[in-house]
Design goal:
Shape: elongated
Number of strands: 9
CATH superfamily of the largest domain: Translation initiation factor 3 (IF-3), C-terminal domain
CATH topology of the largest domain: Translation Initiation Factor IF3
Number of helices: 5
Oligomer: single chain
Order of helices and strands: HEEHEEHEHEHEEE
Structural class: alpha+beta
Radius of gyration: 30 Å
CATH architecture of the largest domain: 2-Layer Sandwich
Helix content: 25-40%
Largest sheet: 5 strands, mixed
CATH class of the largest domain: Alpha Beta
């Protein structure tokens, strides 16, 4: 009795995990509605064009699922494979691809027109640390009140900041003015490993 219940639960669980597939553009087994499909076997061999019922019977006889690979083909292309194993391998490939991706963040450093030398050096050291980690740095000078009339002071601060980071980073563009803010983005310079 317990064995039968366990088998029923396992079958229901298997059906639910397969029927609620994550990839909505891949239809499997009973979800495929095309009248005729081109079938590729479990080993990758061409089986031929079959009616959908015959294709499902072929897949069930081989103990695998019928998965719609190319729905736009004429006729649509299906492959007889173990769907659970197929999803596992696909997810594994995607995870490996994510590991190889490099995510670049943009860190922001706030400056002002009347910044003191020690504060400026502290901001430069923070920016060097960020650039050393492979992140980009956005240096922003905010103009307050009448400082808008003296934008050349902000431009000088940004130029001085860019020169202080000359060996570690390089500016992507010239400083840009956006309302009361002037900003520049500095990206890390690739160092030759010796």
């Amino acid at each position: 009795m317990r064995t039968e219940i366990f088998v029923c639960i396992f079958c229901f669980w298997r059906y639910k995990t397969i029927s609620t597939n994550n990839n909505k553009d891949m239809l499997i087994n009973e979800e495929i509605k095309a009248p005729e499909v081109r079938v590729i076997g479990p080993a990758g061999e061409q089986i031929g064009i079959m009616k959908i019922d015959d294709a499902r019977a072929y897949a069930y006889n081989n103990g695998v699922d019928l998965v719609l690979i190319a729905p736009n083909g004429a006729p649509p292309v299906c492959r007889a494979i173990d769907y659970g194993k197929f999803c596992f391998e696909r997810d594994k490939r995607e995870k490996e691809a994510k590991k190889k991706q490099v995510i670049v963040k943009v860190k922001e450093v706030q400056l002002s027109c009347r910044i003191e030398q020690h504060d400026f050096e502290t901001r430069v050291n923070h920016a060097k640390k960020f650039l050393g980690e492979g992140n980009k740095v956005k240096a922003v000078v905010r103009f307050k009140g009448r400082e808008m009339a003296h934008m050349e002071l902000g431009r000088e601060v940004i130029q001085k900041f860019e020169e202080a980071l000359a060996g570690v980073g390089a500016a992507e563009k010239k400083p840009q003015l956006d309302g009361r803010y002037m900003s520049i983005i500095i990206s890390p310079v690739k160092q030759d490993k010796k």
